[in-house]
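Review session, final week

We close the course with one last complete record, chosen because it touches almost every idea we covered. It is Sodium/proton antiporter (CPA1 family), a protein from Pseudonocardia kunmingensis with 418 residues. Go through it on your own first, then we will talk.
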Amino acid sequence: MDTVLVLFAATVLVLGLASRLLKRHALSPVLLAVAVGVLVGPDVLGWLDPAATIGRTRLLEEVARVALALGVADIALQVTRDDLRRNGRRIALLLTVVMVGMWLVTAAGAGLLLGLPLAVALLLGAALTPTDPVVASALTSGALPSRMLPRRLRRSLQVESAANDGLALPFVLLAGLLATEPAGTALTHWLAEAGRELGIAIAIGPLLGWAAARLARLAEEDELIAGSYVPLLGVATALLALALVHLLGGSGVLGAFLAALAVSLALPDTLRTPVGETLSAASRVGVVAVFGVFGTVLPFSGWVALGVPGVLFAAWVLLLRRPPVAWAALAVTDTGARSRTFLAWFGPLGVAGIYYLAYAERYRLPEYEQVFAAGTLAVCASVLVHTLTSTPAVELYARRSGTERPEGETVEVPGPLP
């Protein structure tokens, strides 16, 4: 355990101290965390091998679950009522039509290219359906995106990526049950389980967030809370919602998002700003942890065993999973061609995909090693490609749309997105 703590703390420290240097040279902390994980993992130095201690996917699933909760809550704390009102139709399409389309297209690629049975292909497709809140937030937050991308574009991508992590669970449950039970039994079982998971999260998450925000406001008015404790409210609420909703049988990740969203809508800016800053910092720590662990369990031999079909599947996921589906679905909104192209391309995989790939092991399928290898290869390809294309894409969008602003100014587009 001490070895894990030393490696984790040293990685966070180095990446934090060199954060400006990394940004200047377009280096991604996510990719560097994966590289550190590979270096200290069993295939190189052998300092850390989760498979030999608590199990390969057990540690990965738990770390990813906490990182996801912090990541989705971080985004929720940035969202206002006006963001939801202006982007409601666009976000609704992204969370329904586009999600289902991404699931089915990815599953089709898994069946055609990898030869997986239908139910197993649907399980892999479900695990790779949600866009990642952590990677997406890195693409849409910070000085450069704030100056060059309209707020409505940034918020649409962020809210979608935060909400669809919890909403992907019913897809994973359905596919997993179809792979392990007769169709009729699986459907009945799924209706009960998915209804319980989503229902508890929707019932408990907002209530918990509203109560936390209300108590914080009352405590501030009565001068009961010390100023140094205010910033911890977001982290505490996200983790409380994650654990409590999960203990009650619901989707903890969705519960954390809804709780943080309720906090954001109920808190005044004087409280929301410090709460959000601390939550954002905690989210970055979680990212380093999950991608570091991810690097230690990458199945290089499994990638080799997949061969060319594995590479083709990763390319299928990058090019067909989201771009054509999102482009077509958003055509019915007031989203212009350039913004549709941006939203269609940037649906990165990341922590959410890692979490559901680890979660899928509980079904004990004979094809699981193939699923894990193909899924991790697709995640790595997405993180690499979307990270490398993020800055050029933002700059190109700004030049073509005329949204670039001088340093220190942010972009606000009141009308339809260009």
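Two points worth writing down before the exam:
The chain has a mean pLDDT of 85.
Residues 216 and 225 are 8 Å apart (CA to CA).
Good luck, everyone.
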